[in-house]
Amino acid sequence: MSTVPEIKLVFDEPKLRVKTPSHFADWTPEERKAKAVELGIPAFRAKQVAVHLFTHYNDDPETWTDIPKELREVLATTFTPKLITLVRSSIADGGKTRKDLWKLHDGVLVESVLMRYSDRTTVCISSQAGCGMNCPFCATGQAGLTRNLTAGEITAQVIAAARTCANGDMPGGPTRLSNVVFMGMGEPMANYNAVMRSVRNITSPQPDGLGIGARSITVSTVGLVNGIEKLTEEGIPVTLAVSLHTPDDELRDSLVPINSRWKIKEVLEAADKYADRTGRRYSIEYALIRDINDQAWRSDLLGRLLRNRNAHVNLIPLNPTPGSKWTASRQKDEDEFVRILEGYGVPVTVRDTRGRDIDGACGQLAANEIASAFTSSSITETTEGAQ
Ligand code: SAH
What we know:
Elements: H1 29-38, H2 44-55, H3 69-78, E1 84-92, E2 97-104, E3 109-116, E4 121-124, E5 128-130, H4 139-142, E6 145-148, H5 151-166, E7 179-182, H6 192-203, E8 217-221, H7 225-234, E9 239-243, H8 249-255, H9 264-278, E10 282-288, H10 296-306, E11 311-317, H11 331-343, E12 348-350, H12 367-374, E13 380-381
Helix pairs in contact: 1-2, 5-6, 7-9, 10-11
Residues 133, 135, 137-138, 183, 187, 220-222, 243, 285, 287, 316, 318-319, 321, 362-363 line the site of S-adenosyl-L-homocysteine.
């Protein structure tokens, strides 16, 4: 069906076309102190910066009144250059879903989606601008990979979301950002180092990080086995999600083209090892596509594949992307799919379709196209310059 893309797995610092300025959130806590000392600034200032960023979600050095003014100016350029600027936000679900479009220093656009539920608030963040994985049903995949994001750029999306929550900028009053999912634009495992640095920023206790528990973070992958293996060695028990989408290699070769490199068996074995090592059940993502991967026999095969594994299936009704001939499954087929899986004792949930009407649902993020579409959308709330 689709051709196998040229995929470069990046485990080193990304080679950016215009290098993103180095940022406090790119460094380890030790490096932060060392940088301060290098600049002739007492090491304790690094801790003050950390408190502003990760405890108060304040990335505007001008307002850091516990630091002398001249020093704030130095810090603004050397420690905390502005990496992401809000272009606009759009809201849906009565304000409980909010999609933010961010412009990076080089004009590249990425998106994040904040979703408030009764028991938690989750931000879905981007790890790359675009994506090189080329899954034919995903909007982000269609334009290819523009570039990797830095840890600073990834972390900045989380800080912004935490600030939105804390400020009470969503209906329901102030709340705490409780969950982070790497399910926005990009393949997190193809930008491994920056993703892991940002995971540490999110999980490290304050003041070094945001203090959100690793278990509340989900890293979703197409199944880059080398990445899953590396993650297994990190000792950070984030939730691993594997985008399987079908239990047979024949179809998966076209739905998730990287399957030509790592087959289903290898991917699941790597996920099993992750589960064994961390004690964490992993998640199998499965976008239900009408008459493509939603047949009863596939559910049966999936059930047999997963019945003795420490896995949970998350079914995602397909969010149709522009120009695609594919659509979501019929309700009766979805119900049957669930019933068969449950028959095998496999835990299964069907994901809600939050943000669908603002192209903010799973697989709909494609900033370059949406940037122009935004202006004509009646549900768009423009907040240009609000950041
Ligand atoms: N690259 C990562 C993160 C991608 S987005 C990964 O593939 O896991 C998170 C989930 O949304 C993935 O499971 C992805 O396959 C799914 N997805 C992509 N496009 C979709 C669409 N149009 N409808 C429903 N789910 C989609």
